[in-house]
Structures are given as C-alpha cells and as structure tokens.
Amino acid sequence: MSTIDKKQAEDFIESVITQYEEKTYKDRKTHIEVVEPGQEKCGVKSNRKSRPGVITMRGCAYAGAKGVVWGPIKDIINVSHGPVGCGQYSWSSRRNYYNGTTGIDSFGTMQFTSDFQEKDIVFGGDAMLRGLLKEANNLFPLNRGLSVLSECPIGLIGDDIEAVSKDISKEIGKPVIPCRCEGFRGVSQSLGHHIANDTIRDWIYEKDMVGQKFEKGPYDVALIGDYNIGGDIWSSRKIIEDMGLNLVAQSTGDSTFSELANVAQAKVVLIHCYRSMNYISRYIEEKYNVPWLEFNFFGPTQIIKSMRKIAAMFDDKIKEQTEKVIAEKYQPYFEKIVAKYRPRLEGKKTMLFVGGLRPRHTMPAFQDLGVEILLTGYEFAHGDDYQRTLEYLDSTTIMVDDMSEFEMDNFLEKYKPDLFGSGIKEKYQTQKSGIPFRQMHSWDYSGPYHGVEGFGVFARDMDMAINGAVWKNIKAPWKS
Amino acid sequence: MSTIDKKQAEDFIESVITQYEEKTYKDRKTHIEVVEPGQEKCGVKSNRKSRPGVITMRGCAYAGAKGVVWGPIKDIINVSHGPVGCGQYSWSSRRNYYNGTTGIDSFGTMQFTSDFQEKDIVFGGDAMLRGLLKEANNLFPLNRGLSVLSECPIGLIGDDIEAVSKDISKEIGKPVIPCRCEGFRGVSQSLGHHIANDTIRDWIYEKDMVGQKFEKGPYDVALIGDYNIGGDIWSSRKIIEDMGLNLVAQSTGDSTFSELANVAQAKVVLIHCYRSMNYISRYIEEKYNVPWLEFNFFGPTQIIKSMRKIAAMFDDKIKEQTEKVIAEKYQPYFEKIVAKYRPRLEGKKTMLFVGGLRPRHTMPAFQDLGVEILLTGYEFAHGDDYQRTLEYLDSTTIMVDDMSEFEMDNFLEKYKPDLFGSGIKEKYQTQKSGIPFRQMHSWDYSGPYHGVEGFGVFARDMDMAINGAVWKNIKAPWKS
Amino acid sequence: MSKDIKVKDHITLFNDERFSEMFERKRELYENAATKEEVAKTLEWTLGEEYKELNFKREHLVVNPLKSCQPLGALYAAIGFDDTMPYVHGSQGCAAYFRSHFCRHFKEPFPAVSDSMTEDAAVFGGHNNMYVGLDNVYKLYKPSMVAICTSCMAEVIGDDLNNFVKNAKEQGNVPEGSLITHAHTPSFVGSHITGYDNMLSSMLAQVGEKTGEVKDRINVILGFDTYIGNFREIKRILGLFGVDFIILSDPSYNLDSPTDGHYKMFNGGTKIADLKDAPNSKATLLLQKYSTVKTIEFIEKEWGHPVKVVNPFGIKGSDDLMMAIAELTGKEIPAEIENERGRFVDAIGDSYYWVHGKTFSLNADPDYAFGLTRMVMELGGEIKHVLLTNGTKDWEADTKALLASCPQGSEAEVYAHKDMWHFRSLLATDPCDFIIGNSFAKYLMRDTGIPLIRIGFPMFDRQFLHRYPTIGYMGGLNLLNWIVNTILDETDRKTMYTTSYDVIR
Amino acid sequence: MSKDIKVKDHITLFNDERFSEMFERKRELYENAATKEEVAKTLEWTLGEEYKELNFKREHLVVNPLKSCQPLGALYAAIGFDDTMPYVHGSQGCAAYFRSHFCRHFKEPFPAVSDSMTEDAAVFGGHNNMYVGLDNVYKLYKPSMVAICTSCMAEVIGDDLNNFVKNAKEQGNVPEGSLITHAHTPSFVGSHITGYDNMLSSMLAQVGEKTGEVKDRINVILGFDTYIGNFREIKRILGLFGVDFIILSDPSYNLDSPTDGHYKMFNGGTKIADLKDAPNSKATLLLQKYSTVKTIEFIEKEWGHPVKVVNPFGIKGSDDLMMAIAELTGKEIPAEIENERGRFVDAIGDSYYWVHGKTFSLNADPDYAFGLTRMVMELGGEIKHVLLTNGTKDWEADTKALLASCPQGSEAEVYAHKDMWHFRSLLATDPCDFIIGNSFAKYLMRDTGIPLIRIGFPMFDRQFLHRYPTIGYMGGLNLLNWIVNTILDETDRKTMYTTSYDVIR
Q1: Same domain, C96 and C173
Q2: Domain identity same for B316 and B356
Q3: In angstroms, rounded to a whole number, what is the distance separating the alpha carbons of residues B335 and C5?
Q4: What is the ipTM of this complex?
Q5: Which of A283, B79, C229, D321 has the least C-beta neighbours within 10 A?
C-alpha cells in the first residue's frame, strides 16, 4: 500500500506552486508529477532553466565540468580559470578519493586558480594564462597534463583559451585541454558534464592519444562514470576483479590521464553514472566499436543483477566465477547486513532528491532494506532519466524535477518522511524540522556506498540517520 | 650592594611574626635571620615542629620516604599501605623519570595501595597485607622487590608489617622491605628520608645483598641523591661518563634494586642531594670503607668545580680528560647560554624556598646568570644545611626555616622579587600577586636542570618566568 | 630569538643518540633487567584473557584506583564558603597533599591549615594542636568561619571534634562568637565524595537556623563538581528563570580568582548568612546524587521542604534540570532556555554521525559517570564498560537500569569497585573506540592505543577545561565539543597519509 | 550492538591488504605513474630551498589561496539582518557555492536566492531575471528586506543594479514600499572581506536615515567575523556596561538557530528599524578594520559621529575594546569585566610556559591575523611567518609595526599576497613549532609534519568551534584553550612512549 495518495498529493502540489509568480507557476507545474508503479511514461519536464528568485539546489556548468568530470583525474592540473571563488568553493569538497602524493604526482585536493583581477577582465587573460600554465608545469613536473576550466568572465570577455592551450601543449609536450564550462552556460551542472565529455572526446580520442601500454586480454574492461566518492570505485573495482575481469581503465574517480585515454582500449565499457558520462560511451562505441553497458552497484539486488548482466558479455569462465563469488562471498555478507539493518529500517519512508542518476540507482538499495520512497527527482536529469526511474517504483511516488527549496520545505512539512537524502544546502534546514538527513552527493563524509562493502556502509548510515537517538529528543518535554 | 637592608628587614620580620599566637611567635623568631656574606655562623633553628594552624609548606615522613627515596626505584613495587589518599596524591607527581615498560618491568608511575577500609582499622591489616603482596608479585612477576610504606593508621593500630614482610620475602624469594614512614612521625619529610635510608641500610646492606655482577675497574663510581626529576640524573651521568668514569650504580632516580645494592661496590660514592641521602653515604663509608663526595651539578661554576673535585679522587688520566671536556665541550656551551640569557637576567632578584638542599645548590647557578638572592630557606633542612648555605651568599639575605605561607605573602608583598622559586602550593598565590614563579621541586614540568644541558634549560626557564610577557599585563590599563 | 641557540628540554633531549646508548648500556650492565624478550612476553600476557582473569581475582591489592580520600572532598565543600578557612585536624602532610592535588587541577591557590599532629598527639590526643591551631588561624587570617575535617590519625585515635571545638571556645582560643563547623571524615571510609557529603551536611546541620518563615527562594547544591564553569552556568540559568537562590558551597570565587597583582586568600563564595538562612528556602535542588547522600537525607528530614535531585548532563538531564527548577519555583521555563535546548539539539544533529555506533568505556566519579553514560547514548554512542572505584550500590543499580533502557547500553558492563588496572585488562581484551576519563587515563591510552576523551577529575595535564560548564544545554555543548572534536582529531591522525584525510567532515 | 557484524567505512576499509594490492597493481599496470623514486625525489625537491625560490617567482599561478570572492562576504553581511533575503544577481551556480561553503562551515542552513542568469542574459542583460526574481522572492518569502549583490557575470556585462531595482519597483515586480538594498561585488576585486564591506556600507548608505537627533546609543560592527559566539559575547559585554547599542549585522540568530522541529528561514538579526536609525546613534565601534575600510570611511564622512576601531583579541586588544566602549559611552568599565580580565591574565600566567619560546606561523584573514599575532606574542610565542592572500597595504604596515615592537616578532616575515603553496615552502625550509590556520591548513600539517592549531575560516573539519567567542577576555580564554591544549596534546603524542609522558603538566 502506498503512503502517497495520488489525488491528495496533486491537490497539495497545486496548493504549493500557486504561490509562485505566474510564469514560474506555469513552468513548475510541468516539472512535477505523481507517478504510479507500472506507469509507462513519465511526463515530468526536465533540463529547463530554473526560475529566477526561486532557491534552486542546482549549480552550474563549471561545477559539472570541474567537480565531476575533470576534477577527479588525479595526475592532471585542473586550473580554475577566472576569479578565485569558483575554485575555492569547489576545493576538496567532492571527496573523489585517489591514491598518490598530493602536490607531487597527484593534484586532486589542490586548488589551482588564475585569480583574475580587474585588469585581467579589462585587458584579457590569455597572456597571463600562458605564463600560468608554464609555471604550473615547472612547479609540478610530474603532472601528466593540464586542463583550463573557464569561469563566467572568460566567455564574456572573449579570451581564446583554445589557442593558448594548443601553444602551451606544444611547448611543454603535454596535453593542455581547454574546457569552456562557464557557469552561465546551460541550465545546470549537466551541460558541464556534456561540455567536459566533449573536450575529452576532442582533445583525447580525436587526437588518438593512448595511455600506458598494457598486455591486452579477452577480459579487459573499463569502468567509467564513477567518481570514487568515499572510495566507491574501489569497492566496485573489487567486484569486477572478483568476477575474473581485468579493469584496465577507470574514469574519472582515482583516474589518470593514461586511463582516460585507455578507456577505448577495453573490450567493454561499463558505465555507472550514465547521466554524466553517456556522451563518451556512445562516442567510443561509434568510433572504436567498443560496446558499453550500464550497471548499478548499489545494493544486493542491483549488484547481483549487474554482475550477471556484465558476465553475460563474456564467456562461461566469467559467468561461473561470477556465480561462485555471488554465492560464496557476497550473498552471505548481504544477508548479514540485511538481517541486522532491515528490521531497524522496515517500513521507513524516505525522500530522495539528488543529481542526475542516484535516486534511481539507490532506490533499489533502499528497497532491499525495506524503505519506501515517497518522493524523488533530480537536480539536473534529462527526460530519459525520469522515464527510467519508473521501473524502480514500488509505490505511488511524487516525481519532481529541479525541486526548489520552497517546494521541498512544503513536501517535508506535509509528509514528514523518516529520511531525506539530498545535498549539503538542504541538510540543515531539513534537520531543523526534526527530519533525519543524509547528504547523498557526498555520502555525508562516509562511503563507499558502491559495491559489496559499500552496501554495508550504506545500510549502517541509513540506520544511523533514521534511528539516530537525537531525533527522539527534538521536542522539549515541557512542550506537549 | 645588597637590596636587603639588614635593620629594615629585621624590623619588618618582627612586624610580621608578632601577629602570631604567642608561643608561635616565640618559636618563629628563632627560625628567621638576616644573614650577611662572610658571616660565619647561621643561627637559624631548624628541624622543629611546625606550629598548628599556620599554613606550612611541609609534608610528612611518608612523602619523604615514598616520594623521594623509595618511589623512584623503578623495578620495585612500592605499596602505600593504609587508606587510599596518600598514594593517590603522590601518584606520578614527582616526575622521577625512568626508562622501562610501566606495569611490566617498571612501576614508577603506578599507585599500589592497600586501600584500607574501616574493618582493616578495627581488625588490623596484616593478613590483608600478606595476600596483597602475593597478588602483587603474581600480577607483576618481573618486579625485583616490594616495599611496604606505612601510612598513619599502621603505626597507630599496631600492625606488624616487619613480620609480614619477612614471611612474604621468604615465600616469594624477593626482598620485601617494610618502611615505617607514618606521616605523623617527625616534623617533615626529612624524617621520612632518614627512615627510608635506614630501611635501605637494614634490609639491603646489612643483609649483604648485591646486585647484577659487573666487571670492576678503577673508575667505578656510584651516584646517589639524584631523583632524576625531568631527567636530571641522565645529564649528570653524561658528565660522569664524559670524564672517563664508570657509573655503576645510581640511586634513586631511574634506579633499580640491583643498583641500589651495588652502590657499595663503587670506588667512590658521589652524593648530590646530601640532605636526603647522607645517612647512606656515611654508613657505606663506615661499613665498606668507600669514600663519598658531595658535588653540585647546577650551573657552570659548580659543575666545573665539582668535576675537578671528583677528578681529584682519581688519576691523571681522569683529570686530563676532565679538563679537556670542560675546555672543549662544556665551557663553550656555557658561554653561549650565558651570552644569551645573562643580559636578560642581570640584576633580577629572586627568593628561593625549597626542600632541604636545592636553594644552596641552585644559588650559584642563579648567580652565574647575574640573579641576586633576596631570601632563601628550607622546608626541611637541618642545622648544617643552613650553616653551609652561608658560603654561597653574595649579598644580605633573609634566611627562613619552614617559612609559613603567611610569612611568605608578607615577604613577597614587601620585597616584590622578580622571581619566587618554591612549590606547587605556593605557585598560584605568588602569581596572583603578579610575581613570576617557578616550581623548584619539580622544575615546573620542565628539566633537566642538572648538568650541562640542564643549565641551558634552567637558564631558559628562568628567563621565561621572569621575562614572561604576561607579567607586563597584570594591571588593567584603566587602573593607574 | 628563535635563531639563537636552541635549548632542548626533556621532551626532546633524551631522544639524542648519546642518551639512548647510555640508557642501553646501563640497562645491560647494571640494572639486572629482565631480558627484552621477557618484557615483551610479559607485556603480551598482561594484555590477554588469562591475565584478565587473574587480575579480576585480586582481593587485596588496589592498583591505580579512581578515588581519593574523604578530607579532600571536605575541603572542597569548605572552600565554597565566603571567608572560610578549611582546617585539617591531623598530620600536616595530609593538608599538603590535598592542597597540591587541587592546585594541580585548578591551577589556583588552595588555602587550608593543618594542626600538624605528630607522635605526641598520637599518645595524648590532638586537642592541644587544635587549640593552638585555631588560635593562630583567627589571629592570622581572621576568617568568618573555620571548617574542620579530620584525616586518618585523628580518626584512628578517636579525637572528638565536637568536644575540642567546645573547649576551644570556652578556653578563649578563638574570638567570642567564632563560627566553627566540623565533620569527621575518616579516609578509610568511602572516598572524596563521601567527605564532601559529610562536610556539607555537617555545615548545614551546625549552621543552618530554621526560623519557620519560608522564603521565596531555592537552595542549589552542585555536589563534588570540579567544573567551576558549572557554578556560573547554574547562576546564569537561574537568572534567566528570574529565581532567587542560594548556592550551598560555591567555589567559583576562590578557585577562579583574578590575577591582578593582589593575592587574596578569601575571594567570596556562599555567604555565611545564606548558609544560616538556607533552611528557610522553600526548596532545595541538587545536581548530584551519589556525592550528597547524607545531605539529601538531612535536608529531607530536618528542613522538610521539597527536594529535587537531577543529573544535569546531556539533553535528558538538562530537561530534568529545567523542569525541576520550574516545578520547585513555579516559574515558566524561559524562551531563551528553550532556544538553548534547540541549539544544543541542533549541534547534536550536526555531529552525531561521528559518535553513533562508536563504542565508549568510561571512568569517572559516580554522578559524572551516570550523566556521561546517558549523554553518550543520546549521541548514539555505545557503552562498553563503565568502571568506577567509588561506585555505590545505588549508582550501580541506577546505571544498570539506564543501560538496560537503551539499545546502546545493551552490551555494557558495569563495575562499581574496580580500579584502572582492571580497566586496562578490560580495554585490552575487549577494546572500545574511545575512553572517557581523567588525566590518569592517559596511561590507558598509552597501554591500549585507545584514544582518550578527557573529562573528569583530576585533570592535571590539560588547562582551562574546568573553567567551562558541563551542565545544562550549554554545558552539554562543551561536552559534545570535547567528544566530537576528539573523534575528529583521531580520525585525522588515522587518515593523515591516506586519501580519507578530508577537509570537510 | 557492537558485537554484531561491524561495518568498515573508508577510514579503515582501504587499509585491508586486498585493497593495497589492488592499488599497487593498478598503479603499476595502468596509471602511467611516475616511479616511486621520481616521486620521492620530487617530493624532497619541493620541500627545499631551490623549490622555494622557484615557487616565490610565480607571477600568475595561484595555488591553494586563502581567500574567497566578494559576494560570499556580501551574503554574510546580509544574513545578519532580520527578515532579509540575500540575493545574488548572476549565475545560479555562484549562489549554490556560497551557500554550500557557509553550510559546511556553520553546519546551518544558509538561504540565498539567485536570479539564475544564463546565456541570454549575457546577451541582453540581466534585468528580466531580476524582475522575475524579485517577484518570486516577495511572493514566496515575503522578506522585509532584499539585499542584492552581484557575481562575476553581472559585473562583466555591466548590469546597473540601481536602475534595475528602480525599474522593478516602478514596474510593480515588488510590493509597494519594498526595501531593497544592493551592492556591486565583483569577484575579481578584493576578496570576501571586500564584499562584506561593500554590502554593509551600501546598506548603511541606502537604508540609514539621519534625523539630526542623537540617541544615547552606540552602533557596533563586528566585520567579517564567523565566530558566532562573538556576537553573543559583545552583547553580554555591552550588557554589563549597561549600554544601549545596535549591532549592525548580527548573524547569530540565523546561523545558530535551534533544532526544534520547525525550520524558519528567517530567525532574527539586526532589525530593519535599527538599520534605519543607526546614523542617529552617538558613536560607532568597529571590531575589525581591514574588512570594513569603506564602511568606516562612510560613517566618518556621512554620519559624522565618533568612530572607534579596535582589534579585540588578547589582553591588549580586549583592553582596547573595553576602553573604547568606556570612552564612546562615558560609562565606567564594570568590576565584572575587570574580574574577567584578571581571570584571563591568570589563565595566561598558568599556561604561558607551554607557549613561551615556541614558534608560530599564521594564516588568517587580516583582522584575525593581526589579533592572533599580537596575542601569540602576549603569551611569549615567537612569530615566524604571517602569510595572507588577502592582506592589504595597511595590514602589512600595521603588522610589521606590531612585530617590530616586540622581541618575539623580531624574526617574523610578513606576506600579504601569497598562498598556501608558498606557505608550504616557508614551513618546509624554515619550520616553526605550530601553524595557526583554518581547515585547509591541515594539508600543511600533513606535508610538513608541523601541528596545526585550528583557528579561522572556513572550519569544515571540526565542529562547534565557531559557537565560542574569541573576542574580549572570555573569548581570549577560548583562544588560549585552543592554543595551549593543542600544544599539550602534541606534547603528549610526542612523548607517549617515553618517560616524559607526564600526568601533570
């Protein structure tokens, strides 16, 4: 039985959004729908501009390009080109883990900026950028390349970062990749992913770059679209290896330039975050004829399903090994975790509003633990994301695209879920309402959530959030 | 020129002590004298009872026996026999450093107590003590012996700890030493030293115990009366070794039972704290015919003087080596320290009121740094200590025995020294008056102060105390 | 200055090779030391199950206990009164120890006299010492009150304080009308908290004057609480309520006095007049239970007004505190207090994920142990061991009931009369994530590698912590700060050379 | 619970051998990694003198700077006013970043809208965004004031806020009489503290209404001070003085609100009426100087009443603060403040021997850097490097003069416009005993092994610290606590397996 009554929910939604300014009201109406399990089409509009003056959870193209695609590649120097702020606010905040010596052969948790001053706006920053790239290369000689990530002013003042990058690349003999991810482009982080993917395409694959040579084999796979938040890609990698496959390249979490280039050298490309990386997988399929496969390593149901789907691309040896590892190692672990946590979580209700993929990826993991989803949606998904979310529903669910915080507050107030999973900006106001919260972009400083070990951490954390002792103490006992 | 004017000081003293109750006044009058350099006799009375109701700085016999003599011996288990408090308050508070694994082969910073309860008072504690000593030996099998340090009730209820100790010693095959250091005995810690020394005599030397066998040589010396506060004995040991001598036993700082027994095996016994250990050195000389020598390793003047005095007991090889190390290593270091700190300390005035020896031992070190002594005295010295203090005077000085805190407050108020060196109980009230303070029992958590390196630390600390920036800020600027 | 010659003290000096060699040589040639293998083997053995069993079989030996003796607590009760001289009838060494102990904890002077009993007093009794002692005290310090307690010697020989004081007054050893209170505080009974209780209840009994008139005012007793900040905090809270109150024993004046160039022995505290008038308050609120057993009994029986006892730590404890004040005074709980509650809960909400599921073992005096146990569970922390040396039966029963009421307490073990050497065995054989304890627990941290959160008494190796409050919501924020930020600090240290060394946590 | 299956997260999970092997294999076969020798060699090189020289020759590249951009500071000024919506005219991503940054520091919600300018606004200007934006803001949140600042895009294309706001009012996008303030805060000029100054001075100019009547009241401006406790502390201090006051921008309501089950977007702050009436106060007291340059200038010029600027850290700074209040108000400094001074001095006297002679290098915003530099020297600490990214010429001159006035500053080097990668070189080639800095300085601790004392902004990896005050004597006690107890903690860690692991320090 669903907690959400469709008619009541629709009436409630209407009562909330009528409070907007008129054009905003009309726009928002098309972004929200109450959907049912089994429903075939999702009518939610997406990838549209957020309306001015409405607190949106969204970020910008720069955030998508730097924070998601380029940022995690550990051996290149990502220069935030423009004023100091963008690089500063995104510094070390995504927890894309990596192994390496920071400042020497790895640069993931460093903030490189051109720190634009007024004169740079007036006279342009190209000359400065030239000098900067050379300085960076001199001071960090073990870098394997540099990227130039444009902030808003660059596109507006007409700098030619492509020309500069080409020149310097030639001069230093390393890739220098200009990425036009100014924050005003597009409607969300999503365009940043796309733009960044395009730069990977244009500056790596189109130039036929390859990475470290390795001995090729029939079981070589690449894993893309995993950003290694809290170590996600490592627990995923472990599964791939346990299946008997060879992971020859991963991107972009704990990734190197070499691996990025070598993605196309695999036999199959496995893609986890479809939303941010599908551009690349499609391109590689087209250009190199390497097939790709979407998978989901959140929670037992999807992990096992995904493992079998991947194994199906390979021979019996892999299939057998896959079944063996499931039966002997994973299943028993999953059972223990479920036995411990499901009784504590059964029947709890959650709302999930995150990025462009995670809600539909994590819903099955919640369901594995007996948690119902009341509401979900995406900051920056596209139509197909909503469409594909339908298959994971098991009760009536409110689907919201680009939910404003105004809407969010109203939904929380109305439905009082046992958990809300979203981002840092949403965390503390949710908690003020006495509703437990998990940051589902950053795993709230925990992780991994992917893979087998990740499911244990996920289950533990959701239990911790939902059943945290503090939530019983919200109300002063003298207030009845 | 002296800061203290004798006549004025005497008048002032009179004005202070007339405030006492009459008998107390009469008594205190005999404990204070204004002395002059060159004066031949010191008339100060000492080693008398403190008067009731007067806040004295003194402790008790138990404190002297446990804290000073037995406590620092690292491989024996010192049992504080009686109620819990005495052991608790003296636990880890003397900073007698030692090398070893605490709880395994070393027990210096542990508090072993019989935690007397009412029933033990009523029925006696001997049976319990038997069990206790065996438990201790079982749980800490690497101990090399045990001591039983009586607290007040033991002597009052008539327990026979000697009999118990003898029995258990036989049973476990290790020395068990009963020490009748009840706190009500005598007038101060001093009797505790004496009692404890007597137990060493009676239970070790009288029984002809010896320690670890070692190859004897002409340069074997023992060092006693150094408690290794903050590492004192280690920097002293370094000097002895630098002179070419062989330190075969030290006591009681970082000492073992073996070394304690082997003191009598040395060619010469060097004694640092004469006050607390002279009983032993005299006895050893008598029984074993081993000569002893008092020395002082505080500050350049005394270190060099003492080294030469010690060397004089040996052959030319030692004498030459001594001169060499002084000239090549120590003198240059002393000069650097003096060059740095003397300009910052020259002409500063201090008062020193400590234990039974340190004032006269540290005065020359202060003088090496240009610091004048206005007042000094001892908590628990004897007549000869006062007598021997005279030789270190270089200006008119107030000499006080068993100074009460009432007198202390008055002296501080009157003479406003730049530094007062005394104990923890005196520290904070001195500082409230805006007068810098150093704990000169415990080196105020610093040290070593003995030896060459120790002089550096001493000079640094006195500078830190006297010239601490905070003392310029005592008065609110709006109070003129 | 830093470029001059740099002096090394013990913290680094003895790491120099010259010294290591010296130490090694000494060990080998002269110490008759156990072999390194023996030491290693014994060390391992002491950390195991077999040793634990042996260790728990101890019947007589006490090693590293967590308690001090009665007169210490008695002095603490006394120092909280204005113009009052604490007085120890017994050996002078006792007073020296008590004073040092407090000085080391508070980094403050702690005046107390002793009447320096020695051998002759053992034979003839300590009355003469007291007569001269009181005479000197009044001549030198002119206190408004003298508070006498006893140490072992006087108790063993059976000195009768009541009689001595009467004689002293009659003989004129003290000025006419002198106010002298006295309590027998044998060190071989109970612990420092018993002494606190004995002294305080004696003062109430000996000085309080019930007039029959009931005043619109409450008495507040904090118990043996060495967090000086709590005395200010309870006053602030009562101020917000707009309540008239008397704190019975308030050491926050004497033990947190200014450095302004003038030492004053007496800096304030509960006024003697207030002590006299306390029976006429309309109610008494106590913030500790196990350190005030006799005091509670006395007030309930003799003063006959409402008495409430709360344990004011954490959310629940602070709620109890506020509701108790409201109930005893009839006042509403102020909005500002409610706001503070919300801010405390908020801070817990922001941070509990660092505590939840972590395991804790605790050492403390009973009232703190109870409060911290409950608060840790409010944060989602799980309790492994609660070990006291001076626990009482009541405390044990209360704590077990508390633990049983909460899943985070389901596996906890409670020890009322064990010591820190027992604790070492427990931690070594059944480790937790964090220890909560006083400065001596640093040895447990060293021996077991389990990080220590420093809360308790004595606190000798950190400064200022006792200046913060720990009670009420704002005190809770300090406790939370110490707990959570220690966890964060340890997490940093554990991850420093890994990628988990996060900037955002 | 703890005896169930134990889940390992990233903090310990990846230490497992299986993972180490996996990492090693990946590195070897696929990463095209530098050899370990190359890495070790390069690491050593980066810590040396040669590298330092190269590093300091940088003209363009900025690495790990210690500053953020203007609108961040503007939002901070805005959030301190009651019922006020901070509004970012520019790309929406900017607002998202500012909000996240504050949320991570304060662990509090931080409301702010953006008008989501995109490509079309780049071509046609952002006026339409603002019209719709303001309309929505008033419809949804009904604020009493909207405070608009700009991010890069609006500044580069030259949007005219004044005009836009005028139009919005005329067009009826906003309700009649709406109060909208606005400041241009280009990210490519100055830093976050410049933005604070621009926003605050604009608000004073645009809202303040000088009536000619002078009220017996002072204005107080704290500047870009993220220690929320300071707002409560200054109110407490002024309360003790018995002074009537207005704090201009008081974020302590919005950024320390209760968790009580009800989220409120606006929780209080400086009342709009007070902002209007501020010019009629008799004087203004500022607790920061470098973050309020324009504000000071404006008040001096336009309001014409006495202005005092103090740096209220440490003894001297707190003295200055108290005397400034006394001078501006004609009130006596209360005895309680004098007592607090004495207690702070006392705490320094008790602990300074742990600080004296130790060397410190500092990172902070300019006002904090100045105050901490002075306070460290008051404790006897010696300053090695003071390095800022957003230092000004005034700051540099003031700091050099301060250092020159004190022997503990005689060897210090001052850098107004360097970054933390420069700092790394300084610390590696000329190490100090302790670093003082914000959370990002933990990287310096890792890279150089020098312990970090965490004071500053942002503070992402410790909790609650911003709830404590740092100003005045009682704030000084907190600073002292952080400094001294970090030193003690590091001393413990250094000595844990030596005999210097003292219980009493």
Answers
A1: yes
A2: no
A3: 11
A4: 0.98
A5: A283
